[in-house]
Amino acid sequence: MPQLNKLRTALPGDSGKDLATPPSARLRTALTLFFALDGFLFAGWVVRIPAIKQQTGASAASLGLALLGVSAGAVVTMMFAGRLCRRFGSYPVTVVCGVLLPLTIALPAQARSALSLGLVLLLFGAAYGGMNVAMNSAAVDLVAALRRPVMPGFHAAFSLGGMVGAGLGGLVAGGLSPAAHLLALTGIGLLVTAVAGPVLLSHPAPPPVAAAAGSGAPGLDKRARGPVLLFGVIALCTAYGEGALADWGALHLEQDLHAHPGVAAAGYSVFALAMTAGRLSGTALLERLGQTRTLVAGGSTAAAGMLLGALAPSTWAVLLGFAVTGLGLANIFPVAVGRAGALAGSGGVAAASTLGYGGMLIGPPAIGLLAEWSSLPMALTTVALLAVAAAALGYGARNAAHG
Q: How far, CA to CA in Å, does 287 sit from each of 280, 282, 293, 339?
């Protein structure tokens, strides 16, 4: 295990106390903090969407178009984030984005129209997209060095951060303005980056998986392109559901079922809690079932849960549906992105992440437009349809997935 041996080699100047904790453990902890921060900040933004919608006077359709700013900013950044990771390293790019993301999260609360909201969300989306490609690239390389399927653990941290962010948002929704709330999140985000960032910058990253596999090509290998894009589409189908529930779950509970704002905000928290539980058990699940059965079972479970969450007539049944959906979706995205990275390094992560997070970010405006055309509950059933598609594609990718 040459990569892991490199990680365990102490740097010059390390103290005896530092030697007690292998660099691999410190790197894993720091990277886990960045995943948690990403989920925490994103959830903090999404639970304030109803208040910002009211603040800007946006309709469902215009809000959907404004949310497209997040999608556009993220996808544009993701298109070249893989190149930045190859040139400067995924750790420095992660840290830079860990500064930019907290700074940009305060901007949506200053918007007073759908147009201005869409413009500031371009910046937020750019930081969010760069962060996700960089930290997933770093995670893929570290997972390869550790030689254990621990990728779901990083994404569990994202979900846990989302749960905490949504829970905090629900608690302060009635008494704290969106501007004050999001500004507080800026301070928290910068503090976490100040703690975790130096760990990443002071330790060498493990060799990129493409290099470890003997591929000297810095870009996406032609033979890997098809499988990588397939895993990217699988990620897109499931991330669409994550984005839809993040941005529209609270509004569905509040608008269609007349739930209290605090209960409505808890809807995403329930979803994130279920995803966290599913991802914490993801390593054991993958070791027991393999990749293909994990993908198929997850997509099927998510589809059933989302039909309940979209169409059930009571608040508690909808919350149960959100929880089942979270359990189903939990491990599909990390498996898809992790496999793409194992096939093609940071280029594979960037390609699959661009498709995957594109689904997460394109989903909300698509739901908004569909809700304007029909209704929000019917629009949310598209999450179930795409979960079924992910299950089918996961089965079709069984040879590429080696599982």
A: 13, 8, 11, 14
